[in-house]
Write a structure and sequence with these properties.
This protein is mainly α and 222 residues long. It has 11 helices and no strands.
Protein backbone atom coordinates (compact mmCIF):
# COMPACT_ATOMS: atom_id res chain seq x y z
CA UNK A 1 0.00 0.00 0.00
CA UNK A 2 1.21 3.51 -0.80
CA UNK A 3 0.30 6.83 0.71
CA UNK A 4 0.40 10.58 0.34
CA UNK A 5 4.18 10.35 0.59
CA UNK A 6 4.21 9.22 -3.04
CA UNK A 7 3.71 12.85 -4.02
CA UNK A 8 7.36 13.40 -3.10
CA UNK A 9 8.59 11.15 -5.90
CA UNK A 10 9.88 12.83 -9.13
CA UNK A 11 7.66 10.70 -11.38
CA UNK A 12 4.62 11.62 -9.33
CA UNK A 13 5.27 15.36 -9.58
CA UNK A 14 6.03 15.08 -13.31
CA UNK A 15 2.72 13.31 -13.93
CA UNK A 16 0.71 15.70 -11.74
CA UNK A 17 0.38 18.71 -14.09
CA UNK A 18 -0.03 16.60 -17.21
CA UNK A 19 -2.41 13.78 -16.42
CA UNK A 20 -5.76 15.28 -15.39
CA UNK A 21 -6.35 16.34 -18.99
CA UNK A 22 -4.88 14.03 -21.61
CA UNK A 23 -6.43 16.40 -24.16
CA UNK A 24 -5.81 19.63 -22.29
CA UNK A 25 -5.26 21.78 -25.36
CA UNK A 26 -8.57 20.68 -26.87
CA UNK A 27 -10.25 21.00 -23.48
CA UNK A 28 -9.35 24.69 -23.11
CA UNK A 29 -10.03 25.58 -26.75
CA UNK A 30 -13.38 23.76 -26.83
CA UNK A 31 -14.43 25.28 -23.51
CA UNK A 32 -13.48 28.75 -24.74
CA UNK A 33 -15.32 28.17 -28.01
CA UNK A 34 -18.53 27.18 -26.19
CA UNK A 35 -18.23 30.10 -23.77
CA UNK A 36 -17.63 32.70 -26.51
CA UNK A 37 -20.12 31.45 -29.11
CA UNK A 38 -22.66 29.90 -26.71
CA UNK A 39 -22.82 26.99 -29.15
CA UNK A 40 -21.41 23.46 -29.32
CA UNK A 41 -20.77 23.29 -33.07
CA UNK A 42 -18.01 20.79 -33.99
CA UNK A 43 -17.30 20.14 -30.31
CA UNK A 44 -17.13 16.46 -29.35
CA UNK A 45 -18.84 15.36 -26.15
CA UNK A 46 -18.30 11.61 -25.80
CA UNK A 47 -14.46 11.71 -25.40
CA UNK A 48 -14.77 14.03 -22.40
CA UNK A 49 -17.53 11.91 -20.88
CA UNK A 50 -15.45 8.74 -21.16
CA UNK A 51 -12.42 10.59 -19.76
CA UNK A 52 -14.53 11.65 -16.78
CA UNK A 53 -15.53 8.02 -16.17
CA UNK A 54 -11.87 7.04 -16.52
CA UNK A 55 -10.85 9.66 -13.94
CA UNK A 56 -13.53 8.48 -11.49
CA UNK A 57 -12.45 4.85 -11.95
CA UNK A 58 -8.79 5.64 -11.27
CA UNK A 59 -9.87 7.82 -8.34
CA UNK A 60 -11.57 4.78 -6.82
CA UNK A 61 -8.47 2.66 -7.46
CA UNK A 62 -6.24 5.31 -5.88
CA UNK A 63 -8.55 5.58 -2.86
CA UNK A 64 -8.57 1.82 -2.35
CA UNK A 65 -4.80 1.66 -2.82
CA UNK A 66 -4.16 4.70 -0.64
CA UNK A 67 -2.14 6.42 -3.40
CA UNK A 68 -2.10 10.20 -2.96
CA UNK A 69 -0.94 10.89 -6.52
CA UNK A 70 -3.79 8.96 -8.11
CA UNK A 71 -6.30 10.58 -5.76
CA UNK A 72 -5.17 14.19 -6.36
CA UNK A 73 -4.61 13.93 -10.12
CA UNK A 74 -7.84 12.12 -10.93
CA UNK A 75 -9.93 14.20 -8.53
CA UNK A 76 -8.76 17.36 -10.34
CA UNK A 77 -9.34 15.68 -13.69
CA UNK A 78 -12.86 14.55 -12.74
CA UNK A 79 -13.79 18.08 -11.59
CA UNK A 80 -12.54 19.66 -14.83
CA UNK A 81 -14.22 17.05 -17.04
CA UNK A 82 -17.48 17.49 -15.11
CA UNK A 83 -17.23 21.25 -15.64
CA UNK A 84 -16.87 20.65 -19.38
CA UNK A 85 -19.91 18.34 -19.38
CA UNK A 86 -22.03 20.92 -17.54
CA UNK A 87 -21.03 23.72 -19.93
CA UNK A 88 -21.71 21.47 -22.93
CA UNK A 89 -25.10 20.49 -21.52
CA UNK A 90 -25.96 24.14 -20.88
CA UNK A 91 -25.36 25.20 -24.50
CA UNK A 92 -26.38 21.98 -26.26
CA UNK A 93 -29.77 22.27 -28.03
CA UNK A 94 -30.33 18.51 -28.00
CA UNK A 95 -30.04 17.81 -24.31
CA UNK A 96 -31.93 14.52 -24.37
CA UNK A 97 -29.24 12.64 -26.32
CA UNK A 98 -26.47 14.08 -24.13
CA UNK A 99 -28.34 13.20 -20.93
CA UNK A 100 -28.97 9.67 -22.24
CA UNK A 101 -25.27 9.11 -22.94
CA UNK A 102 -24.32 10.52 -19.55
CA UNK A 103 -26.93 8.46 -17.69
CA UNK A 104 -25.86 5.27 -19.52
CA UNK A 105 -22.18 5.64 -18.63
CA UNK A 106 -22.95 6.70 -15.07
CA UNK A 107 -25.25 3.68 -14.74
CA UNK A 108 -22.45 1.37 -15.89
CA UNK A 109 -20.07 3.11 -13.48
CA UNK A 110 -22.46 2.71 -10.53
CA UNK A 111 -23.03 -0.96 -11.36
CA UNK A 112 -19.28 -1.45 -11.43
CA UNK A 113 -18.83 0.29 -8.09
CA UNK A 114 -21.63 -1.78 -6.61
CA UNK A 115 -19.97 -4.98 -7.80
CA UNK A 116 -16.48 -4.08 -6.56
CA UNK A 117 -17.52 -2.66 -3.19
CA UNK A 118 -20.39 -5.01 -2.30
CA UNK A 119 -19.73 -8.33 -4.03
CA UNK A 120 -15.94 -8.49 -3.68
CA UNK A 121 -15.32 -8.37 0.09
CA UNK A 122 -11.61 -9.26 -0.11
CA UNK A 123 -9.66 -6.00 -0.42
CA UNK A 124 -6.73 -7.47 -2.38
CA UNK A 125 -9.06 -9.17 -4.86
CA UNK A 126 -11.07 -5.95 -5.17
CA UNK A 127 -7.89 -3.96 -5.83
CA UNK A 128 -6.75 -6.39 -8.52
CA UNK A 129 -10.11 -6.52 -10.30
CA UNK A 130 -10.59 -2.75 -10.13
CA UNK A 131 -7.05 -2.23 -11.40
CA UNK A 132 -7.72 -4.60 -14.30
CA UNK A 133 -10.94 -2.74 -15.15
CA UNK A 134 -9.17 0.64 -15.10
CA UNK A 135 -6.33 -0.74 -17.23
CA UNK A 136 -8.64 -2.15 -19.91
CA UNK A 137 -10.68 1.08 -20.00
CA UNK A 138 -7.54 3.22 -20.35
CA UNK A 139 -6.11 1.00 -23.09
CA UNK A 140 -9.39 1.22 -25.04
CA UNK A 141 -9.25 5.01 -24.80
CA UNK A 142 -5.68 5.13 -26.09
CA UNK A 143 -6.46 2.77 -28.99
CA UNK A 144 -9.75 4.42 -30.01
CA UNK A 145 -8.06 7.04 -32.28
CA UNK A 146 -6.51 4.30 -34.46
CA UNK A 147 -9.27 4.85 -37.02
CA UNK A 148 -8.05 8.45 -37.38
CA UNK A 149 -4.50 7.22 -37.96
CA UNK A 150 -5.77 4.90 -40.71
CA UNK A 151 -7.50 7.87 -42.36
CA UNK A 152 -4.29 9.90 -42.14
CA UNK A 153 -2.41 7.17 -44.00
CA UNK A 154 -5.21 6.87 -46.53
CA UNK A 155 -5.45 10.62 -47.23
CA UNK A 156 -1.72 11.31 -46.66
CA UNK A 157 -2.73 14.32 -44.58
CA UNK A 158 -2.15 15.08 -40.88
CA UNK A 159 -4.72 17.89 -40.75
CA UNK A 160 -6.92 15.87 -38.40
CA UNK A 161 -4.04 15.38 -35.92
CA UNK A 162 -2.85 17.79 -33.22
CA UNK A 163 0.91 17.98 -32.74
CA UNK A 164 0.64 19.58 -29.29
CA UNK A 165 -1.83 16.90 -28.17
CA UNK A 166 0.53 14.20 -29.45
CA UNK A 167 3.43 15.59 -27.41
CA UNK A 168 1.20 15.97 -24.32
CA UNK A 169 -0.03 12.37 -24.66
CA UNK A 170 3.54 11.10 -25.05
CA UNK A 171 4.74 12.94 -21.93
CA UNK A 172 1.68 11.91 -19.93
CA UNK A 173 1.91 8.25 -20.91
CA UNK A 174 5.66 8.14 -20.28
CA UNK A 175 5.33 9.80 -16.86
CA UNK A 176 2.60 7.39 -15.73
CA UNK A 177 4.57 4.42 -17.08
CA UNK A 178 7.60 5.51 -15.04
CA UNK A 179 5.41 6.06 -12.00
CA UNK A 180 3.86 2.59 -12.35
CA UNK A 181 7.34 1.09 -12.79
CA UNK A 182 8.51 2.91 -9.66
CA UNK A 183 5.60 1.46 -7.66
CA UNK A 184 5.89 -1.93 -9.42
CA UNK A 185 2.20 -1.60 -10.24
CA UNK A 186 1.39 -3.20 -13.63
CA UNK A 187 -2.14 -1.75 -13.59
CA UNK A 188 -0.65 1.75 -13.83
CA UNK A 189 2.37 0.93 -15.99
CA UNK A 190 0.96 -1.38 -18.70
CA UNK A 191 -2.13 0.61 -19.86
CA UNK A 192 0.01 3.67 -20.61
CA UNK A 193 2.36 1.81 -22.96
CA UNK A 194 -0.17 2.01 -25.85
CA UNK A 195 -0.22 5.79 -25.34
CA UNK A 196 3.54 5.90 -25.92
CA UNK A 197 3.24 3.63 -28.96
CA UNK A 198 0.42 5.58 -30.62
CA UNK A 199 2.22 8.87 -29.89
CA UNK A 200 5.34 7.67 -31.71
CA UNK A 201 3.16 6.52 -34.61
CA UNK A 202 1.62 10.00 -34.77
CA UNK A 203 5.05 11.65 -34.68
CA UNK A 204 6.13 9.40 -37.55
CA UNK A 205 3.03 10.44 -39.48
CA UNK A 206 3.85 14.12 -38.87
CA UNK A 207 7.34 13.44 -40.28
CA UNK A 208 5.96 11.40 -43.19
CA UNK A 209 3.15 13.84 -44.09
CA UNK A 210 4.20 17.32 -42.85
CA UNK A 211 1.66 20.14 -42.54
CA UNK A 212 3.38 22.13 -45.32
CA UNK A 213 2.83 19.21 -47.67
CA UNK A 214 -0.87 19.25 -46.74
CA UNK A 215 -1.16 22.93 -47.70
CA UNK A 216 0.58 22.34 -51.02
CA UNK A 217 -1.74 19.42 -51.72
CA UNK A 218 -4.78 21.60 -51.00
CA UNK A 219 -3.49 24.30 -53.36
CA UNK A 220 -3.04 21.73 -56.12
CA UNK A 221 -6.58 20.52 -55.54
CA UNK A 222 -7.93 24.06 -56.04
Amino acid sequence: MTGIGDLHSPAAWFSLPLSPLPSGHHYSSDLRHMWMTRRVDNVQFLPFLTTDVNNLSWLSYGTLKGDGTLIVVNAVGAVLQTLYILVYLHYCPRKRAVLLQTATLLGVLLLGFGYFWLLVPNIEARLQQLGLFCSVFTISMYLSPLTDLAKVIQTKSTQRLSFSLTIATLLTSASWTLYGFQLRDPYIMVPNLPGILTSFIRLWLFWKYPQEQDRNFQLLQT
